[in-house]
Structures are given as C-alpha cells and as structure tokens.
Amino acid sequence: MLIGKKRTESHIIGEAGVNILKQHLPAEWVVREYRPDYGIDLAVELFTSGEKCVTKGAHLFIQVKASYEFERYIKSIPNRSSVEKPSRPVEDKKFKMEVIKYKLDTDFLSTVERMGSGVPVLLCLIEIKTKEVFFVCLSDYIEKILVNEQDYTLQKTKIVYIPTENTINESKLGILEWYAKRPRFYALFNKIHYQNSELEYVSQYDISKYIEHFIRIIRRFDVWEEPLFIPHMKQLDSEINYYLEHGITKQGDGIIKEMQERGEDVDAEIWEATYCDYNEEVSWREAQRVQGLHCLWKDLSELGNLFEDIYKEAFLPTALGNVLY
Questions:
Q1: CA–CA distance, 162 with 147 (Å, rounded to integer)
Q2: Counting C-beta atoms within 10 Å of the first and last residue's C-beta, which end of the chain has fewer, N or C?
C-alpha cells in the first residue's frame, strides 16, 4: 500500500474545469490563478487580437466551480417591479427559465457584496461531460435578487440559479468584455453627471465651447465601442455625431424644420428662452440650439440611472433579465 500525499478527485475536476474555461477564452487573454484563493479563483486580463496584442486595461474576477455534470431545472420566474424602488403592483405573470442551481457559502457571497458591483465577480460553472461553461454575475445577482429576498447572511449557504443560456463561447465573448469594462461605465456616468451639473452655470455664448470640450473627454472612454448592450448609448452616440456634423442637435433641428414648414420665422428674436440670457433677445434658432444641447446632456446623464434600474439585470434569472437580450 502506497503512503503519501493524495490528489483528491475534487482537485482533479477543479483543475480540469479551469483548463476547459481557458479553452473557451481567447489565447491572447491572460488568466492568472490566485494561490491561495479566498473565493476568487481567477483574474482575467483582456487583450486585443492581432499581430500585436495590447492590453485593454479590462479585468474579470472569476469563481470557478466544476462538476462532471450539472442537473438542469425549469424555474418559474415571477414578474416584479424594479428592486431599486419600493415594491409596486405589477402584472401577475410568470416566465419559465432553464437553470442550474448551485449552493455557495454566504461568507463568499458577503465578500463579493463588499467588493461592490463596480468590480463584477462572475461565477463560472464548468461541466466536464459537455465542456460547457455557464456563468452569472454574482455582484449583480446579490444586488438584484438576494438582498431583496431576505438577509442571506443569516444562512450558512445560499442557492443561486444560473440560466443555462448563459454560456461562454466565441460568439458571447462580448458579454465578458461588457462586465470587464464595468468600472469604466461607472467612470463615464460619473463624468457626464459632473458635466451636466456644470452646464447649468454656462451661458449661451460659451455652451458650444463647453460641449465640444466635454465631447472630447467622454469620447475617450472606450465603452462607446462594441459590445455595448445599452441601446440608449448607441442612440445618444448618434445624437452626438449629429451635433458635430450639423452644429445643432437632432431634436433642435427637428423643431426648427417644423417651424419653417409652418411658415414661421425661426430667426425672429424673442425675449424669453430657457437657458438663454434674459437680458437680451435671442432668435428661435439660437434658443433651440442651446436648449437642445442641454436636453442632450440631460439624456446622457440619465444613462447611469438606466444602468442601475434596468441593464444590471442583464443575464440574471429575473423577469427583466429574461426579456433584455
């Protein structure tokens, strides 16, 4: 009988799971294993593809759990209102979703919650039999589901549900990049919020200078690139391009054209116009240009609210997550 240190089956399966996960990721991405680990198994740094691979400055944190095979379940998902606001009556409707349920220690979940949703942690379940990798963002799961059901920290373990549609493959790498860029989304939303506040004190004569300066700043954030997963950002990006090309927002230009079609003189001067100097007359055209820019930045400043209210539920086993993508 041989006596010595033993390599357990769980260690073998765990190592096999990490290897399978690496096979699903681009070769140029760097996977670093934590030793010892305290819940976070891997840190993944994203790089561009091509002859010269350049770091994107985007990182993922992953908890890996592997098993030979996971059992699938059909879970009934009740409709509900946004958890960011007090509960309100909604249509009594349920959705069916195939999920894998997995038990996690609440000590680990509490650690993820303390990290904050600005640093997403993904749970990846690796099925050895099929070599499939399933994922869910635990940071969003805790915020949108667990803390609104009950105080999960009162239990030693907690079941989480991973939609089986959440698989990692070549066609879905954009989802991983979307999570990896989360800190930059928050930085962008905060920057726009600051800019919108500053515009309240900018005169109509200086607004173009401010807007063009603000655009140069926010366009440096690479979150405008694909993959985006926020349709409102695509629309507003198009609005910014329209302004840069025409010197007026699409909304303001539309109002001016409607007035011209009615035979109104858009260059006639008026005394009162929101955001314009009340001591001087201003033309309808100029008023719409100034007001349109303020409206555009107010819409941009709403992106952070939409992200918190809606888009953080993407790829979660919730009613809203079920219909988002």
A1: 17
A2: N
Instruction: Return the HEC string of the chain.
Output: CCCCCCCCHHHHHHHHHHHHHHHHCCCCCEEEECCCCCCCCEEEEEECCCCCCCEEEEEEEEEEEEECCCCEEEEEEECCCCCCCCCCCCCCCEEEEEEEEEEEEHHHHHHHHHHCCCCCEEEEEEECCCCEEEEEEHHHHHHHHHHHHCCHHHCCEEEEEEECCCECCHHHHHHHHHHHCHHHHHHHHHHHHHHHHHHCCCCCCCHHHHHHHHHHHHCCCHHHCCCCCCHHHHHHHHHHHHHHHHCCCHHHHHHHHHHHHCCCCCCCEECCCCCCCCCCCEEHHHHHHHHHHHHHHHHHHCHHHHHHHCHHHCCCCCHHHHHHC
Cβ contact 229:311 at 8 Å = yes
pLDDT in tens, 20-78: 999 999 999 999 998 877 789 999 999 998 888 899 999 999 999 999 999 999 999 98
| CA–CA distance, 276 with 50 (Å, rounded to integer) | 51
Q: Are 152 and 169 in contact (CB under 8 A)?
A: no
* Angle (CA) 287 289 295, round 5°: 100
pTM of the entire predicted model: 0.90
